[in-house]
């Protein structure tokens, strides 16, 4: 099953694969964009009322989101509550930026619900955290490979900051 691209613009792309919301981020996610991400999670939850997963990958050089975006993320993550099974945040940045991003996400996790948000350094580790909770018709042993392929498909379309500024909306 191919992921369904539900939104993209010049800073990020959001896709659904079964009960997983995949977000590939390469630019600053401001308040309205974070609100859009929350709307996507709500849409996915309407399809899978027993619970959803999230895998968000922040590419190297992705800046820390402004405070309004962080507040919006706390709002919608709290709203999802126990229906958000896991959220794996892939931080690909190294050095000071990577440390800053991890610190911000630890703070969000403390505000939302400790243990719900996982900070990992690779897509493979994110898949390991989430694969057992994916709702699909695949054999359990096939889920990690297919989920990894879905994430790779979403991320393969990245072509950098020179993307068109016209957003594509499907949700």
Explain what you see.
By secondary structure, the protein is of the alpha/beta class. The chain has one domain (4-159): STAS domain (Transcription Regulator spoIIAA, 2-Layer Sandwich), CATH 3.30.750.24. It has helices at residues 31-47, 67-80, 95-112, 123-130, 143-156, and strands spanning 4-8, 12-17, 20-25, 52-58, 84-91, 117-120, 168-169. The chain has a 7-stranded mixed sheet, sandwiched between helices.
Order of SSEs, N→C?
EEEHEHEHEHHE
Radius of gyration: 15 Å
CATH fold-level assignment: Transcription Regulator spoIIAA
Per DSSP E runs of 2 or more residues, the count of β-strands stands at: 7
Quick one: CATH superfamily? STAS domain
Question: What is the CATH-assigned architecture?
Answer: 2-Layer Sandwich
CATH top level is Alpha Beta
Largest sheet entry: 7 strands, mixed
In the sheet with the most strands, the strands line up as: 6-5-4-3-2-1-7
| Low-pLDDT stretches | 159-168
User: Could you report the average pLDDT, rounded to the nearest whole number?
Assistant: 84
Could you tell me the strand content as a percent range?
Answer: 15-25%
Write down the oligomeric state.
single chain
* Helical stretch tally: 5
- The structural domain count equals 1
Structural category is: alpha/beta
Percent range of helical residues? 40-55%
Q: Which geometry do the CA atoms define? A: globular
Span from first to last CA?
A: 19 Å
Summary of the model, kept short:
The chain has 171 residues and is an alpha/beta fold. The protein has helices spanning 31-47, 67-80, 95-112, 123-130, 143-156; strands at 4-8, 12-17, 20-25, 52-58, 84-91, 117-120, 168-169.
